[in-house]
Design goal:
By secondary structure, the chain is an all-alpha fold. It has 18 helices and no strands. It binds phenylalanine (PHE).
C-alpha cells in the first residue's frame, strides 16, 4: 500500500498530535472517575493494579492503535478495512472500527451528562453559592443537582452542543485550538491545588490511602474495573486514538509520543487523587462516595481558601475543557467515517452523532432520578452504559487491536511503522502486544464472567 493521506487533513505542528492525544486522554476519567474508583475499591491495591495495566497494556496498545491509524490514514472503520485488505485477512476486522464508533457514542452519552455537572459547577462556583458554607451544605448541593431532571438535561444539552460545534469545524479550526491553550492551564491549576493539599494535615492520610497496598481489599470486580479504566483513561480500544493517528505526520516518533501521553495522563489522575482524598479525610467524608466524590470535595476546598471563588470557577472551567477535548475524540471516529463513506457534510455528521448521544444521555440523566427503577442487568441505565463500554467494549476492542497488529499484520510492515530504533525496546513492545496484553485482557474478562 502506498503512502496515504487523510482527507480530513494533518495536524499542523509536530506537537499537535501529542496535545490532541493528551487532550483526548486527560478528561473526566482522570479527575472524576479515577479518584472515585480508587475510593470505592479501597485505594492502594487498586491504584497499583491500575498502574501495572497502564504500563504493561495501555501504553503498548496505544502504540499499536496509533500505528493502525497512521498506516490506514482514514477513519477507524475504513482504516481497518484497508489494513485487513492489505494483510489479506477477512474484512470482518473492520468490526474493530464499528465496535469503536458505537462505543464512542455510548460513552459520549453518559460522559456528557457528567461534563454537564461540571458546567453547572462553573456557574455555582462563580455565583459564590459555596462561600462561607458548611462542608455538609456544600456536599449536599450535589444531591440537589442530580435529583433535578430538568437541570441535568439542560446542562447535558449545553455540553453536547459544545462538542458538536468543535467536531463540525474539523480538526484544524476545532480540535487543535481547543487543546493548545487549555491543557497546560489545567496542569497548572492541579499543581496549585496540590500545593494547597500539601499544607493540610490530612495530606499524609491521602497518600496512605492511595499508596498503601492491601490486596485483601481487592475483588475480581476491582481488577476488571482497573483494566477497563486503563483503557478508558487513555482513550483506547474504541478508535479515538486511531482516528487521531490518521492525522499524525510521519516525522514524529511514536514511542516517545505514547510514553509522553501515558505519563501525563497518569500524573493528572494521581495528582487529582491526592488532592481529592486530602479533602475527603480533612472533612470526614466518605472515600467510597462514588461518582459524586469530586463534586462534593473540591468545592469544600475552594470555599476555605482565599480567592476560592475565582480559583474554583477557573478549576471547573478547566475540567469542562478537559472533558470537552475528550468528548470530541469520542465523536470523531463515527463522524470521520460518515464524511468519508457517506460523503456527508462534516457538520451534518457531527449533528447526527450529537443527537444520538444526546438522546441516550437524556436516558442516563433520568436514570439518576425519575427512572432510577429502570434496570438493565440490575444496573441503572447510566451505570449499565458505563460498565458495558468501560469494562467490556474497550478491553475487547483493545484485545482485537493487539491480535490484529501482532498476529495478522505483516511483521515487516509493523516493524517499519513503529519505527522504534532500539531493537530491544521493539522486542519488548512486540512481546507485550503479542502475548501480555491479549492474555491479560482475556484472563481478566473471563475471570469476571465466570465469577
Ligand atoms: N480518556 C477520556 C477520559 O479519561 C475518556 C475517553 C474514553 C475519551 C475513550 C475517548 C475515548 O476522560
Amino acid at each position: 500500500m502506498s503512502e496515504q493521506q487523510s482527507i480530513h487533513g494533518i495536524w499542523t505542528k509536530r506537537w499537535t498530535f501529542v496535545l490532541a492525544a493528551t487532550g483526548s486522554a486527560v478528561g473526566l476519567g482522570n479527575i472524576w472517575k479515577f479518584p472515585y474508583m480508587a475510593g470505592e475499591n479501597g485505594g492502594g491495591a487498586f491504584v497499583l493494579i491500575y498502574l501495572c495495566f497502564i504500563a504493561a497494556i495501555g501504553i503498548p496498545v496505544m502504540l499499536a492503535e496509533i500505528l493502525l491509524g497512521r498506516r490506514g490514514r482514514a477513519s477507524p472503520i475504513n482504516s481497518m478495512h484497508k489494513l485487513a485488505d492489505e494483510a489479506q485477512a477477512t474484512p470482518f476486522w473492520g468490526g474493530i472500527g464499528w465496535l469503536g464508533a458505537v462505543a464512542g457514542m455510548l460513552i459520549l452519552s453518559f460522559y456528557s451528562v457528567v461534563a454537564g455537572w461540571a458546567v453547572s459547577y462553573v456557574y455555582l462556583m462563580a455565583s459564590g453559592t459555596f462561600t462561607g458554607q458548611e462542608a455538609e451544605v456544600i456536599s449536599g448541593e450535589f444531591g440537589n443537582l442530580v435529583s433535578d431532571p430538568a437541570k441535568l438535561v439542560d446542562w447535558h444539552t449545553v455540553f453536547i452542543a459544545m462538542t458538536v460545534v468543535v467536531v463540525a469545524n474539523g480538526i484544524h479550526k476545532g480540535l487543535e485550538m481547543a487543546v493548545q491553550l487549555l491543557m497546560p492551564l489545567l496542569f497548572i491549576m492541579l499543581l496549585l491545588l496540590l500545593g494547597y493539599s500539601m499544607t493540610q494535615e490530612a495530606f499524609t492520610d491521602s497518600l496512605r490511602f492511595l499508596f498503601k497496598v492491601d490486596f485483601g481489599k481487592l475483588t475480581e470486580e476491582a481488577v476488571l474495573s482497573a483494566l477497563g479504566h486503563s483503557f478508558f483513561t487513555l482513550s483506547l480500544g474504541m478508535g479515538a486514538i486511531m482516528a487521531y493517528g490518521a492525522y499524525m505526520s510521519r516525522q514524529q516518533s511514536l514511542a516517545a509520543t505514547v510514553v509522553t501521553v501515558g505519563v501525563l495522563d497518569t500524573l493528572v489522575a494521581i495528582v487529582a487523587g491526592m488532592v481529592i482524598f486530602t479533602i475527603v479525610f480533612a472533612n470526614g467524608l466518605e472515600p467510597g462516595a462514588g461518582p459524586s466524590l469530586m463534586f462534593q470535595t473540591l468545592p469544600i476546598a475552594f470555599s476555605q481558601m482565599p480567592g476560592g471563588v475565582v480559583l474554583g470557577t477557573m478549576f471547573f472551567v478547566l475540567v469542562v475543557a478537559a472533558a470537552w477535548s475528550s468528548a470530541i475524540s469520542l465523536a470523531e471516529p463515527a463522524v470521520a467515517w460518515a464524511v468519508e463513506t457517506l460523503g456527508m457534510n462534516r457538520g451534518v455528521a457531527a449533528l447526527i452523532v450529537g443527537v444520538v448521544a444526546w438522546v441516550l444521555g437524556v436516558a442516563c440523566a433520568l436514570s439518576l432520578n425519575i427512572w432510577s427503577d429502570v434496570k438493565i442487568f440490575d444496573e441503572t441505565i447510566f451505570d449499565f452504559l458505563d460498565k458495558l463500554t468501560t469494562n467490556i467494549m474497550l478491553p475487547l476492542g483493545g484485545l482485537l487491536i493487539c491480535i490484529f497488529v501482532a498476529w495478522v499484520m505483516d511483521r515487516a510492515i509493523v516493524r517499519k511503522e513503529v519505527d522504534i530504533d532500539h531493537p530491544t525496546i521493539y522486542k519488548i513492545w512486540f512481546f507485550l502486544v503479542r502475548f501480555v496484553s491479549p492474555v491479560g485482557v482475556a484472563v481478566v474478562m473471563l475471570n469476571k464472567l465466570m465469577e
